Amino acid sequence: MDRRLLLLLVVLSSCWCCNARDLTVLQSNDKADALYLQEVTNNEDFCVLCEEFASEALNYLTLNKTQAEIVTILHKSCSKIPSFKQQCIVLVDYYAPLFFLEVSSLDAKDFCRKVNLCEDRISKSQELPKDKCDLCHTVVAEALLKLKDPDTELEILEMLLKACDSIGKNAKKCKKLVFEYAPVILINAEQFLETSDLCAVLHACDSAAVVTKEVSLGMEASMHASS
Length: 227
Known about the structure:
Protein name: Pulmonary surfactant-associated protein B
Keywords: Aspartyl protease, Disulfide bond, Glycoprotein, Hydrolase, Protease, Repeat, Secreted, Signal, Zymogen
Domain Saposin B-type: 43-122, 129-209
Structural class: mainly alpha
Subcellular location: Secreted, Extracellular space
InterPro entries: SapB_1, SapB_2, Saposin-like, SaposinB_dom, Sphingo_Act-Surfact_Prot
Number of helices: 12
Radius of gyration: 28 Å
Number of domains: 2
Order of helices and strands: HHHHHHHHHHHH
Shape: flat
Strand content: under 5%
């Protein structure tokens, strides 16, 4: 158990504290401490260090050898309370795997943001396209392709039929309505998207861009249909 154990303890203690800034402000009446902590949370160097150490600690925790060592230590701790030793061991064997599973899903960057050592930043890949008109038409085109796909229609019907099962004695009537009206609704939805400029209705495109997008959308739909 080397310095990685220290990193492990730092990660665990931070998880339990949840929020470094709030905890310190609550425990200390010293405004200087609060101001210092504010500087720390806004310091890029601390953010980088947090992500680096947290990543190393999390990787260490996911190793089978590490997990076995931790379970062994906990079992030894159970031996110190003879009257509850067996129950203690059972609890360790049950909860330890759940804990390791939870740890394996943690992300170093998300962890550092949650403890306020890194500021929330929207990466370039997460930023919405500047041209929301393009984005809107892309979504509409994808929706049209989905509606034209028979497998998608079957998935929607299956979902609606399953929903009917949850209404008890009226389930048969519900399923009859689904079979009778769902195909019509899906066809109408497809026709609406093809004949109407939804993006213009939603004001995602200005009037100058509407005509251009309608032409390009029609060309894309025809190309997919022919392929």
